[in-house]
Amino acid sequence: MPHVLCVNPWIYDFAAYDFWAKPVGLLLLAAIMRKHGIRVSYIDCLDRFHPSIPPSDPQARYGRGPYLKTEVPRPAGFFDVNRRYSRYGIATESLARDLDTLPRPDLIFVTSHMTYWYPGVVDTIKMVKSAFPGVPVILGGIYATLCHEHAVAVTGADEVVSGTAISHVMSLVEKYTGRSIPVTLNENDMNTWPHPAHDLQAKIAYVPLLTSVGCPFSCDYCASGLLAPHRMEKSVDAVIDEIRFWHTGFGVHDFVFYDDALLLHPEDRAEPLFEAIAGLGYNLRLHTPNAVHIRWITKRLALLMEAAGMESLRLGLETTQFDHRKMDHKVGYGEFLRASAYLKEAGFGPDRVGAYLLFGLPGQTIESMEPAIDFVKQAGIKPILAHYTPIPGTPMWEDAVAASRYDLESDPVYTNNAVMPCRQQFDWALISRLKKRIMEK
């Protein structure tokens, strides 16, 4: 049988931290290939538990923690940003040793994440190709999908795949290895998919759960519709089976929902799901870094999420300009206050519930951010600044291009939300001012 190497690349950025970030798509492909008898190896350039790295920050909680950081030259275009730029992940020497210990693979899959992290993808592929000359490298993931032409031009991959590769991962194996293997899953039925191969990691600190894909909203700033245009859901029984598998077999207590619309139709899905999780009696900790839709939070759902062990709940508020909400239609003034009251009654406090507020939007002013922060705090919720990332293909892209001090269309690196690309200058003092306001009692 063929031998396939899967690689999660480095991050190059001004700041990065493991807030429950795992390449669940790549690990799902690894599981699919293993299910069909293919030998799979895995290298995670972001592995916080690599033998070469000292123990993680003891203050880190719920499986999160800092990546190893190595300063590198920042891209030349960031002349106005006086911040250090770093490679996050294992040292180059560690990657070289890991590659040297592997038998030569027949095919290599590399994933990609944020569009502006592509320099890490380029350098990862360069090292992989140096270690295994002549072995085909296939690049997929978010950057490969949203910036396909750029990825083809600069990464050195032999093939760049857009969208999900679930439907044709086995045909790619056949194309590059000559081995034809009948497929035994239904790409359109998540219940037939195997559990992602988290066991390939050095340590399973937490497990991401993808219980559905797709979102019914088409928000101007979001790429969900580009990455997952069709809605699919996994059954409650299948989700419970996955939780039971990782908890009883690997001792996992922290589970992270990656869904874009976890609470859609709560009476039919979310409420039965959290009721079933609570019924397991596992004393789990649940997290929703992707944010949930506020209008679907019912009184019963709030109580069930509390009973199930929801530890870190993030709400997709985005803005408090409810009367002029043109960029999305996710929640109204009354819906937010009602959901906040339900959560408070269920026992949630601002230490566990935060609401994302988009910051750095084209044309946005400081005058609009400060009252938004105050409004969220008054509702008993912690405001969390969500720095806006311009994404090509979204309705807001043209406004972002027009507002930016950089040429966003020339290079995805300029879309980095850490530099506030849609403001006329980088302003660290402004960020500090808003963060201070959030922390004030």
Give the tally of β-strands: 16
The secondary-structure class comes to: alpha/beta
Q: Secondary-structure element order, as H and E?
A: EEHEEEHEHEHHEHEEHEHEHEHEHEHEHH
Separation, N- and C-terminal Cα atoms = 61 Å
Level-1 CATH class name of the largest domain: Alpha Beta
CATH superfamily membership of the largest domain: Aldolase class I
Strand composition percent: 15-25%
Low-confidence stretches: none
CATH fold annotation of the largest domain: TIM Barrel
CATH architecture of the largest domain: Alpha-Beta Barrel
How many domains? 2
Overall 3D form: globular
Helix content: 25-40%
Characterization of the model:
It contains 14 helices and 16 strands. By secondary structure, the chain is of the alpha/beta class. The protein folds into 2 domains: 175 residues, Rossmann fold; 234 residues, TIM Barrel (Alpha-Beta Barrel). The longest helix has 15 residues. The mean pLDDT is 94.
List the main descriptive attributes of the protein structure presented here:
441 residues, alpha/beta, TIM Barrel, 2 domains, globular, 16% strand, five-stranded parallel β-sheet, six-stranded parallel β-sheet, Rossmann fold
Chain-wise SSE layout:
Layout: E1 3-8, E2 11-13, H1 24-35, E3 39-44, E4 69-71, E5 86-88, H2 92-101, E6 107-110, H3 118-131, E7 137-139, H4 142-146, H5 148-154, E8 159-160, H6 169-177, E9 207-209, E10 212-213, H7 224-227, E11 232-233, H8 236-250, E12 254-257, H9 270-280, E13 285-292, H10 299-308, E14 310-318, H11 333-346, E15 353-359, H12 366-378, E16 382-387, H13 397-403, H14 428-439
Parallel strand pairs: 1-3, 1-6, 6-7, 7-8, 9-12, 12-13, 13-14, 14-15, 15-16
Antiparallel strand pairs: 2-5, 4-5, 10-11
Helix pairs in contact: 8-9, 9-10, 10-11, 12-14
